[in-house]
Design a protein that fits this description.
Layout (H helix, E strand, L loop, with lengths): L3 H9 L1 E4 L5 H17 L6 E2 L13 H4 L5 E5 L18 E6 L1 H4 L1 H7 L2 H9 L5 E9 L9 E4 L7 E2 L4 E6 L10 E3 L12 E3 L9 E3 L12 E2 L7 E5 L4 E3 L10 E8 L5 E2 L22
Parallel strand pairs: 2-3
Antiparallel strand pairs: 1-13, 3-4, 4-5, 5-15, 6-14, 7-16, 8-13, 8-15, 9-12, 9-14, 10-11
Length: 288
């Protein structure tokens, strides 16, 4: 089947769909995200940072075991050495993940909506499954940068099939750290992998298989979008976001879809593994 959406994804590596969510849906997800701030644990606070691996989630089972749970990851500047909060709880979180699409009704409703199924249909999926979801806060002042990466580093399948749905719940600007893409970069393969450490005696449970590539700043195109916009992200397109230097947050809900048919294999050394009794939930199955 041929579709304009597929052409655009194959050409640029991303698609911008404005007004994907209604104003009511944006508000519902945004309020759910705010409520999660108050649900966050008072102790055992984990910091999620993509910059310094050595003290971050690589060593932490809390992260690796979050695939079928709702877990809370704090910003670096938000938690003191003793685990005490240094900022208002409403701006302390970096993200919540990675099973909101299963465990939380508001996020479940959007993730498994007919709109999402229709897009996956047009992108030629045969049996797409949702493997993970996150609520990302990108709070003012403390919202850290997300370094350039391809989602396939983390959600690798052979052949590559991961696609991200990124839903803006607030307006995204250069100042508050909008997404930035290298257009067409998905055509150059997967540049590195984030793997379960084959060395079982090592203290690091997760390792990168090679150094981070250097991507020139001038290659990135910023996507300043209004709330309600959905950005479809090819698993191999290079993207990033700068720190939030504004006074406004940049909340987003994002989830990833993979193909589970056509001999597509989900890599056994990905950090995220579905429990045996809880396979990734399927959006639809295309009948021949």
């Amino acid at each position: 089947m041929h579709s304009k959406l597929l052409d655009e994804l194959n050409e640029n590596g991303y698609i911008v769909i404005e007004d994907f969510l209604t104003a009511e849906e944006v508000d519902s997800l945004y309020q759910a995200g705010r409520a999660l701030c108050l649900d966050a644990p008072q102790n055992n606070r984990k910091i999620f940072s993509t910059i310094k691996q050595e003290d971050a989630q690589g060593k932490e089972l809390y992260f690796m075991e979050s695939g079928d749970k709702v877990r809370y990851f704090f910003e670096k500047g938000a938690v003191g050495d003793e685990g005490q909060l240094l900022v208002d709880p409403m701006i302390a979180l970096n993200k919540v993940g990675h099973a909101l699409h299963v465990e939380h009704p508001a996020f479940n409703a959007i993730t498994f909506s007919n709109r999402v199924r229709e897009i996956c249909w047009q992108l030629n999926y045969n049996k797409p499954a949702v493997c993970q979801s996150m609520y990302i806060y990108k709070n003012p002042g403390v919202g850290g940068e997300v370094t350039p990466h391809q989602d396939s580093w983390f959600l690798h399948t052979d052949p590559n099939s991961a696609v991200g749905f990124w839903l803006a719940l607030e307006d995204c600007t250069l100042q508050n750290g909008c997404l930035q893409f290298i257009k067409g970069s998905h055509k150059s393969g997967v540049h590195r992998r984030y793997l379960r450490n084959p060395d079982k005696d090592a203290s690091e449970l997760m390792v990168y298989d090679r150094a981070a590539p250097i991507y020139p700043q001038s290659s990135f195109t910023p996507m300043q979008v209004s709330k309600g916009t959905c950005i479809i992200i090819h698993g191999n397109v290079v993207h990033k976001s700068e720190p939030n230097r504004s006074q406004k947050s940049r909340h987003a809900y994002t989830f990833h879809v993979i193909e589970t048919e056509n001999n597509v294999k989900y890599s056994e050394d990905n950090w995220l593994q579905a429990p045996k009794d809880k396979p990734f939930p399927v959006l639809f199955e295309r009948k021949a």
